[in-house]
């Protein structure tokens, strides 16, 4: 890319933390100075949140960059830290998981129950021949057994590889093969959109292709008919009959904990490898700091799927290591109706809610009257993750969910970073709608130009992390070279530039006049229009700021005169007329609205009104597929698409405007 990203929009609204929350906050403003004065000592203090059977000799070994070792020589057991120690401290009766099935069935799992289940599952895996270092694939719906299975692997030092329950045979098989997994843990099926969907047939097909799999453990969730092979064992006939006694053994701080595959835009999926001591330190610390968690009184709910890194770090490892009480929900937000999320918040008196911009925009589209029907007064902190949150979606979240009381923490991080890196602190930061604000204490982030020089306030460029952090990925499973090439060869020492190793996140960002960070989306998505780099995020946010728009996705399509031209796919809000002339009028108005908000250079060449947008299971817009539509190509890889019918809907219902 020849020049830095444009810096088009400006936002002046600002919201200081509520005084009572600030006064009682877990982390105060001093933390920034403490961490800046001695970063490693700061992380060492965070590691002391955990129970170690052997302390470390060295905080960080960075002698062979970019391969980091944290808390070198330390030993701990991750499952012990997430379960046993809370029971030993007398909190066995505390609810760990309020589980809500989609059809309305519920389960309450206390920390004592969790200890029993995790111990039984650890014993079963051991009986099946799984030993420390082996890989176990997990392909489950959002049921408590998903967390149990992950913790059971951690307990015996095995490495889990969770694959989204919605992924295809192909996706599952390539992940099993790449990790050379020995066992798969799955279920007959799960509930989605009001009916049971099957999982086992996908596993059967994948296992038939993967010689490494010796056993398949099957949880009975729906009771549907399943085919049975000699590798299959029912969970309730093995795990639930196993001994509940299991002594957790300590493992080295760098023992692998999990592999999680990120699809990326090209090439085969990357198996991101995380280890134990540093990962648990940072997930535990950030969950406490960013959400201001008070484990005795808060009810926390993260709406992510366990198959996404957010589910790993902020449903399983962060919250459970902190002894939190949380809600886990199996299904979709509109089953049986569009109030389901708010009904759950009301029912369990959820105090901390962590969700994604895609859901917030969907709720905006469904209408303000839906959340208004519920008592949401228990909420005190709201979080967002997964994509840049448009300022208008942020304001809607604050107004209609937070009822103008609760701070919003917009948390930037990645599968690769393992835990939150950039976020406001709810008791400290005066937030700006749409900004993730600043790096957390202990984290060093910056925005640089293409010569790796930090941009001044007011400038835009590439987001980088300039110092190693405890929960950083250790490598790409089986491919150290790809790890170096992907993340470390753009800037700094890995690019033959100086002796500092600089991590390139792949995102564009800008620093505003106060130094707050604004994430601008993946740099692969940046558009080059008449020589100007324009971020998709800013044009999308301009569209969403129009009252007729619920959601927008913007791509750059090849254009003979401007190089690339801006093409926008826009979902109108529910009550907006779009038939015939009304649609044409709206398109004209929206093009002018963007030009007025961001400047004429950002005026879309074309706006299409669509009923839906293609998204991944974790809710990210797949702009790559929209680029294919905008350039009249056949669609590329659609295996990670959440709902394959969406692309047909878009192609058949297009209304174009020039
Ligand atoms: C946790 C997670 C990582 C990519 C990341 C960025 C985008 C995540 C964001 C955000 C702006 C935020 N992203 N959080 N962009 N603001 N608060 O999402 O991990 O699935 O690996 O995706 O998601 O583009 O690089 P992962």
Automatic annotation (TrEMBL):
Binding annotation for Mg(2+): 544, 546, 549
Organism: Actinoplanes oblitus
Acetyl-coenzyme A synthetase N-terminal domain: residues covered: 30-82
Family to which this protein belongs: Belongs to the ATP-dependent AMP-binding enzyme family.
Residue numbers carrying N6-acetyllysine: 620
Essential cofactor(s): Mg(2+)
Residue ranges constituting the AMP-dependent synthetase/ligase domain according to the UniProt record: 89-469
Name the record gives this protein: Acetyl-coenzyme A synthetase
């Amino acid at each position: 890319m020849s020049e830095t990203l444009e810096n088009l929009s400006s936002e002046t609204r600002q919201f200081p933390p509520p005084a009572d929350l600030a006064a009682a906050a877990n982390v105060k403003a001093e933390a920034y100075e403490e961490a800046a004065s001695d970063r490693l000592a700061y992380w060492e203090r965070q590691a002391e949140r955990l129970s170690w059977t052997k302390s470390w000799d060295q905080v960080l070994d960075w002698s062979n960059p970019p391969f980091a070792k944290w808390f070198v020589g330390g030993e701990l057991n991750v499952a012990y830290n997430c379960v046993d120690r809370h029971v030993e401290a007398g909190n066995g009766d505390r609810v760990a998981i309020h589980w809500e099935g989609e059809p309305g069935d519920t389960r309450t799992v206390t920390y004592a129950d969790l200890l029993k289940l995790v111990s039984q599952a650890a014993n079963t895996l051991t009986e099946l021949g799984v030993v420390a270092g082996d890989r176990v694939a997990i392909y489950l719906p959002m049921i408590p057994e998903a967390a149990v299975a992950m913790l059971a692997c951690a307990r015996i030092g095995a490495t889990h590889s969770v694959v989204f329950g919605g992924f295809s045979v192909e996706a599952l098989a390539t992940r099993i093969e790449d990790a050379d997994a020995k066992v798969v843990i799955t279920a007959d099926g799960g509930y989605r959109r009001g009916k049971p969907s099957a999982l086992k047939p996908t596993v059967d097909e994948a296992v038939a292709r993967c010689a490494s799999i010796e056993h398949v453990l099957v949880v009975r969730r729906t009771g549907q008919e399943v085919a049975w092979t000699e590798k299959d064992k029912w969970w309730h006939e093995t795990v639930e009959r196993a001994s509940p006694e299991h002594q957790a053994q300590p493992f080295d701080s760098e023992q692998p904990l999990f592999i999680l595959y990120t699809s990326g835009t090209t090439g085969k999926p990357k198996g991101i490898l995380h280890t134990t001591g540093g990962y648990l330190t940072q997930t535990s610390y950030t969950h406490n700091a960013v959400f201001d968690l008070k484990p005795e009184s808060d009810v926390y709910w993260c709406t992510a799927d366990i198959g996404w890194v957010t589910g790993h770090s902020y449903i399983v490892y962060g919250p459970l290591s902190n002894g939190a009480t949380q809600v886990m929900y199996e299904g979709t937000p509109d089953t049986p109706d569009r109030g389901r999320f708010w009904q759950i918040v009301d029912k369990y008196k959820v105090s901390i809610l962590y969700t994604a911009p895609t859901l917030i925009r969907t709720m905006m589209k469904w209408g303000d009257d839906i959340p208004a029907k519920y008592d949401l007064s228990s909420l005190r902190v709201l979080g967002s993750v997964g994509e840049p949150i448009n300022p208008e979606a942020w304001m809607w979240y604050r107004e209609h969910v937070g009822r103008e009381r609760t701070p919003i923490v917009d948390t930037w991080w990645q599968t690769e970073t393992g835990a939150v890196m950039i976020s406001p602190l709810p008791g400290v930061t005066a937030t700006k709608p749409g900004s993730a604000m600043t790096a957390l204490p202990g984290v060093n982030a910056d925005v640089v130009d293409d010569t790796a020089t930090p941009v001044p306030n007011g400038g835009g460029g590439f987001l980088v992390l300039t110092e190693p952090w405890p929960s950083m990925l250790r490598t790409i499973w089986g491919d150290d070279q790809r790890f170096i090439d992907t993340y470390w060869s753009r800037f700094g020492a890995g690019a033959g530039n100086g002796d500092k190793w600089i991590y390139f996140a792949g995102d564009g960002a800008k620093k505003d006049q106060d130094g707050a960070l604004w994430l601008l989306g993946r740099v692969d998505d940046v558009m080059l229009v008449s020589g100007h780099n324009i971020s998709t995020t800013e044009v999308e946010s301009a569209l969403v700021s129009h009252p007729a728009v619920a959601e927008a996705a913007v791509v750059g399509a090849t254009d003979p005169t401007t190089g690339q031209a801006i093409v926008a796919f826009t979902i109108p809000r529910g009550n907006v007329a779009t038939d015939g002339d009304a649609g044409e009028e709206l398109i004209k108005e929206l093009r002018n609205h963007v030009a007025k908000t961001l400047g004429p250079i950002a005026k879309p060449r074309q706006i299409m009104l669509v009923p839906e947008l293609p998204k991944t299971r974790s809710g990210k817009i797949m702009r790559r597929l929209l680029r294919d539509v905008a350039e009249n190509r056949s669609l590329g890889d659609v295996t990670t698409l959440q709902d394959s019918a969406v692309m047909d809907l878009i192609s058949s219902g297009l209304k174009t405007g020039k």
